[in-house]
Task: structure prediction
Amino acid sequence: MARRPRLDMAGFHHIVNRGVERKNVFKCNDDKNKFLEILCKACKLHKVDIHTYCLMDNHYHLLIELSLENLSQFMRQVNSNYAIYFNKKYKRIGHLWQGRYKSWYILNDDYLYSLFKYIEYNPVDAKITNTIGEYPFTLLGTIINTNLNIIPCAINSKLKNELDDIKEYLSVKFSKKELETLQAEQKKIILNKENRIIQEKNRTLQEHFTDTQDLPQRNKDIITAIEDGYKQSEIAKYLKISPAMISKVFRDVR
Result:
């Protein structure tokens, strides 16, 4: 199977990396603190902001924002420097990480904010904590726990700076439906064409609405087209209805 195209473009990226054979890459809190130290040094050098993160024992999640086209260089510095530290400390040799890291480019705010919740709920889903914000190795955990310092590379975090506005949203447990929506976003193919990030569509708008026979079916097809990456304005123009109507359908179905 062909690899997904790697996008180094400026913007938001969700990064996941696991230990080889799913073995622990963090054996103690000191290891996690060292990783964050290495992370922040790389952020400073490559002009990267961290918007949230979660360090579990055998993997990590990062939600980052690039200002340059340098994802590969940034991640190479983070992963290789931490692997050197870990192998030296525990007197081991060989690969630390399970293949290359996974990354997804984030094109819309709904996807971005769902990732805040998804990443912060990792310790809850793993039954390490009962509620988000209790685990000390997520960004929310450091924000809520006044005894912990927020890492320097997260000073510009949208999660931190918008917490008062999204606190209620984060308090609602990450649902199965939200997970399915997030997984659908991850499967979308994002391409860089002439320095423009675009989402490759699965079907044309004509194909989306070929079988539309009544209003309920039309509304379902509208949602499917939105999920395929079409803008609400594009759908409104195609169907010759107002953008406000498309927005209403989207809100009602969600």
Notes: Residues 11-189 form a domain with the Alpha-Beta Plaits fold (CATH 3.30.70.1290). Strands lie at 11-18, 48-55, 59-66, 102-106, 189-193, 196-200. The mean pLDDT is 89.
